[in-house]
Amino acid sequence: MPSIFDSPEFNGNLFFPRPDLKTPPPTAVDIYVQAKDQVKLHVRRYPDEGAKFVLLYFHGNGEIASDYDDLAEIFSSLNAELIVAEYRGYGRSDGQPTLRRTLEDAHLIYQSLLEEGLLSRGCCVMGRSLGSASAIELSSKHDAISACVIESGYADPVPLVERRGLRIEKTTDEENSSFNNSHKIASVNCPTLIMHGEDDFLISSKEAEENFRCAGTKEKTLEILEGVGHNDMMMAQNGAYFKVLNTFFSLYFK
After folding, report:
1. Spatial contact of 148 and 196, defined as CB atoms under 8 Å apart
2. CA–CA separation, 135 vs 109, rounded Å?
């Protein structure tokens, strides 16, 4: 029986892609990873020879890689070389997004960067909101990943589409093991930081608490930032967002 997670109804309610019409900054390098079905996946790298590690970043829904052009320098100040991956149909990537393809593509992107020697300094995988699925998928399957950061991530994808009117009565064990973040994060063994906004009304902070509770690693941190919601985490008072990241990065990338 076909999975609801592969249906046009589910994926049409989950994904909101948009194209990239901006000119790339001169310091960025655009990489294209070829999927088996001839789809080209776009990845933008911001080279930084002085960085201590690579931050492989999976953005949120409705976002694209160029949204992070102005943030690469800030991540550089945290000793991270930023690489932003785009999903199918987003920005400069081809194809149509589905949750299953998004997870499969994350492995292709990671493997391609690994083979090109671009992750040799160590890799932290970070996923924001929708990107939490890709970050947890990779971190649960690749022992070479040094650390994982989940920002504004969900525990269960079903409520994301149910609030838009699609009802899902039941999911199978196989579907949960493939698509449910709180199930999959039990297999994540690397140091993990889970960040969430206290006032997030799109994805409740209770989902962050659930992911934290289920996370398999003993080296895990939960930070609920006061006064911010889903899309303004970086605006937390007193620079709390970047302070939390810097503290975490400093522990595991020396």
Report:
1. no
2. 12
Give SS3 for 108.
helix
Q: For domain 4-252, give the CATH number.
A: 3.40.50.1820
Q: Are strands 53-58 and 80-85 parallel, antiparallel or unpaired?
A: parallel
Q: How far apart are CA 163 and CA 109, in angstroms?
A: 31
> pLDDT of 77-95, one tens digit each?
999 999 999 999 999 999 9
CA atoms within 13 A on the CB side of 166: 17
The H or E element that residue 80 is part of is strand 80-85
Cβ atoms of 179 and 153 closer than 8 Å: no
Convert the pLDDT of each residue in 12-43 to its tens digit: 989 999 999 899 999 999 999 999 899 999 99
Whole-angstrom distance, CA of residue 136 vs CA of residue 188: 7
The pTM assigned to this predicted structure is 0.96
